[in-house]
Structure formats: C-alpha cells, structure tokens
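Honest question from a wet-lab person: if I give you the sequences of every part of a complex, can you actually get the arrangement of the whole thing, not just the pieces? Trying it with mine:
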Amino acid sequence: MSMHTMSLGQQSRLLGRYLLLMFIACIFIFPIVFMMMSSLKPDFQLLSDTASIRAFLPVGDISLDNYRAAFDRAPIGLFIFNSIFITATTLLLSLFLASVAAFSFVFIDWRGKSFVLAIVVATYILPFETVAVPLLLLVNKLPWLSSEGVTWGWLNSYQVQIIPWVVRALEIFLFVQYFKDLPKDLVEAARVDGASWFQIYYKIVMPLSGPVIATVAILKFLEMYNNQFIWPTMVVQEEGYRPIMVGLQYFFQLNTPWGEVMAYLTIITLPVLVFYLALQRAFIASIASTGVKG
Amino acid sequence: MSTSIKRGNVAGWLMAGPAFFLICLFLILPFFMAIWFSFTDQRLISPNEPEFVGTRNYERLFGMSLLTLDAQTDESGAVKMKDGEPVYPRLRSYTRDKDTYPEYFRKRQWFTIDRSDNRRTFVLASDIVFLKAVKNTLMFVAIVAPVQSGLALLLALLINQKVRGINIFRTIYFMPVVISMVVVSMLWRFIYDGQNGLLNNILGFLSFGYLEPVNWLGNTATALPSIMAMSIWQGVGFFMIIWLSGLQTIPPTLYEASRIEGASGWQTFRYVTWPGLRNTAILVMIVITMQAFTLYPQIAVMTSGGPLDSTQSIVFQMVERGYEKQDISGGSTISVFLFLFVLTISLLQGFLTRKKS
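Yes, you can. This is the full assembly:
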C-alpha cells in the first residue's frame, strides 16, 4: 500500500506507529551510543556532558586518549587474545563433538544409546552455576600432560576455561533436531554402497548442515565471549590466562576512570556488534531456534 | 535389513563417547559431588580429612526460630518505655546461652513482628545474609519474569506488523542481547550514578528539575529495582524473538477468519493470538525464571550485594562462600538448594506442557 492511497486517518495512525517504534528504539540504542561517545571524551567533559544531549554526540574535545590510557592500565591485547583463543577453541571442539554425538543418536543403532541419550537430556536442566563450586575442587585435582610431564591441577590455564564448556545438551539437541529432518535414504544408500559411518558424517551429513552449524556457532560464541565471568573469576588468578570480561576488574577502584572504562567496554563490545549487524538474520534465527523445542 | 545396516555398536560409542564423557565429568560428577559435600565439612585446601557432618550445613543456612517476649516492666508493673517504645529484654541473654536455650544459640535477629499488648515476636535466623539473598532472588524472579515476558510480548506484537523498515527496529531492539551482561552492568553503573548519572539528568530534565537526583545503587530501596530494570532492558529482546517465532506459527487463515467475523483487535488477540501462544508462553516463563534464579554478574559488577545486603543473591552468596572463603561444603549446600529450585521449575514446565496433549 503506498502513501497516496491512504486516508488521512490511516496516515496519521502509521505516523504514530513509527513514532512509537522510534521512541522504543531510543531506549535500546541510547545507552550504547552514550558508551561509545563517552569513550572519546576526557573525564571532566564526559561528566558535564551527561547534563545535556551532548552525552550522545561526538562533540567537544574528542580523542582516542582514553583508549591509549586503557591499554596502559591493563594488558588488553593479551586479554583479547585469551578470550578469542578460548572462544574459538571451545567453539570448534563443541561443533565437532556435539555434531558427531548427534549423528550417532540419529543415524546409528547402538547398544546403550537410549541410556546415554536420557542422561544427556537430563543435564539440560542443570545450570552451570549449580556445579561451579564442586567443579572448582575437581579441576584442582585433574591431571594434565604437558612438556614437563604430568602435572596436577588445572587452575590458571587455558584448558580449565575450555574443556568443561565444550559440550552442553542444548548443542546436541539442536543437531539432533536438524539431523532428524534430513532424508534418511541418503544415509542408507551410502551405507549400502559401503561408506563408513565417519565418511557419511563428513561427506554427506555435515555439508547439508550449514544452518544448524551457524546456529550452534553463534550461541556458543555468545556464551564463551560474553558470558565467561563467574568461572574464570574462580579458576584464573594469573593475568596471563585472564579473559576480557574478568580484565574489567582493573578498572574497579574508588575513583572510577570513566572515560577509560567506556573505552574498554567499547573495545569489548564493538567486535560483537559488528558481527551481529553483519549476520543479524543468522543471530536472530539462532535465538529463535532455541525456543522452537522446549 | 535396514536394522542391520543401521547397526554399529563400536561406531556409536566412538562418536557419542567423547561428548558423553565430558558431560559426565564436568556436569554429572560435580553435581553428585555437590550433594555429598553438602553433608561434609569439605574445604578447598585443608590439612584434615573432610568429615561427615549430617545436616549441619543446611541447619546453618536455614536455621530459624521464633522468640516471643513480653516488654519489661518496672516494680509497679508498668511497661518500661524508652523513646516512646516499650523496652524488651536483651536478645543476647537468649542467643548466647547454649545450655538454657540451645534453639536460639548464635542466632541473630532478622526482623520483628509487633503483637498487641506489648509483646513482640523476634524472628531469629542463623544466616541472615543467606536468607536475604534468597528473598532478593525470589523478588527478582517474581518481578522480572512477568514484566520482562509481558514487555517482550508487546514488542513482538509491535514488530510483527508489516510496515516498511520494521527489520531495522527489530535489529535495534535485539541489540542489547548480544552485549555481555558484564559490559551492560558496568555501563549502567555510570547511568545510575548519584551525581553525574545519565538517568538522574534525564529525569531532572523531563520533570523540569522537579525530581531530586537519586543514588540509585547506593540506596537500599532502589538498588535491587534498578538492577531489575537494567536486566529487563538487556534481555527483553531475546524473549521478543522467542515470542515472535511463536506468533509466526499461528496460521494467517485464523486472522483472516477473525477479520471477516469483524473481531476487534483485542478480541483477535484474546481468541486467536493468545491461545496459539500457549506453549511459547510456558517456555518464555520457564527460561526467564531459570535465568533470573542464577542472578550474578549484575551483582558482582554493580553492588557486591550491598548496600546493607539489599542486593545479595543466591549465586553471589554461593561464589562468596565456595570460592572467596574456600568453603566448598557451604557453597555446595547453596548449589543443591539452587538446583532444587530449578528442578521444581522444570517439573512444572513438564506438567504444564503435558496437560495439554
């Protein structure tokens, strides 16, 4: 329907609708804009700007000084590297182990399958928070093979932030749900032709699974990059292994250097936002898919 | 024939084995460890072997007693008054005397209830901070769950219309969801600041200076509600998308039929939209409730449980004990308690969804 064919009443109703949509959009976007603009301003201007619309505008004494100061205060490059390394490793391991497990649940008959599946399903309702404290004791006693031989205790390491997070029931579910809808005869035909299960997995099933891989990757990315806070706080005391969210503690002090904090927050957030805006359909589809099956 | 083709015991275990092993080692084993530790005095590092202590950890968390006392009287029988209030015997004489009053020993006053004719009931508890954490978490759940899901539904209905550019609005409403709660909490600490905070300035501007600045996070009355409001802001887009995918499963023919019948907007919502959203509604409520129960980063970044324990949460207390104080048994006891909550919620979900089919 174009504007010309609308009555005046319809037009004003449409205008009202847009005004409402825009007002709500401001509520969501202004704090984020405020964060980014503040990161460019010296502290005294940042504080006085909150009194006016200038808080949301790049005006006054604009510079990247806060970013320089933030990098001086904390080893931000190291924290970013740690977060990206932990996120990427977990994500790849998770995609592989969850899809392979889901493959065996959907396409193969094996003894004990229903038992294993039932246990995996049961862990769906177990939030990580309920096992964090005993897990702290457990990882403190696990062995690890390194160049110096067998060492005990995983505290202060990358593996303690990666391995416990690799597999979650949700990811297996999402793959199972997707695999169930794939045509079964494709797999059976390959089986009759003598293909091994693993060949079928990576030559037939995985190439067809783009959408579910994207979904799991996005959910895992958000979980690992954004939400790793409680666990690294508990198991990492050494700076060298700290992820970026925990690094924020360098800025907790009596007189908060707000300009630097806003710079740090912007550094953390910008890559995710760019990623989101570029792939927003996939992001939204992945969230929607978590809600399809309860 | 097809069963023999699908048969593969070795392949099956090889493929599912690694994932199953990791789930067992990092979720199931620690879950049972939590239950066991909650009955011992396990610490992270201790020279002594942990001992079985029965239900002592639970008693320490939940121990509560009621003590009703009469106001003190002087020789003539009149009630002693001080500053217009009747004077009651000192609680210490009850809570420090293990031999005469073992049930009150080492408990502290949580709150009091005034009865008629100069009697007062003292509610004593072993662990007031934990009980406040439970109370705050329940309040958080009770307010955030309905408000967040309700607002998310309104946004979903708003976004579900076919007008030009609607995708831009959807993208913006969802934006805070992809930002870490840690980042959001730090940002809002500044927005809520008592002196230069953005919120105070905006409210002052909108009310022409009528509203006085409030130290939102420094005030026992406003700290928890402020955290609730921020949490709703951050997460509402997530549930908007879940509602939206629920809305899109409702067949358009139903809407057409109701339009032909001449139904009003409200009637269409009441008799077409809402019944079609039943399962989505249950899912949304369950997920919000589960998330709200594990309230943590907001507290850790914004208030550390203060002021005066007004923002303590269950998970914050769990970390405080299990990690900060290295009291594994105390933290595990809280974990078990949290799990029982979550289990109740999931059973409720199972019950609600089963009832329909």
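Two things worth pointing out. The CA atoms of residues 227 and 245 of chain A lie 8 Å apart. Residues 1-63 of chain A form one domain.
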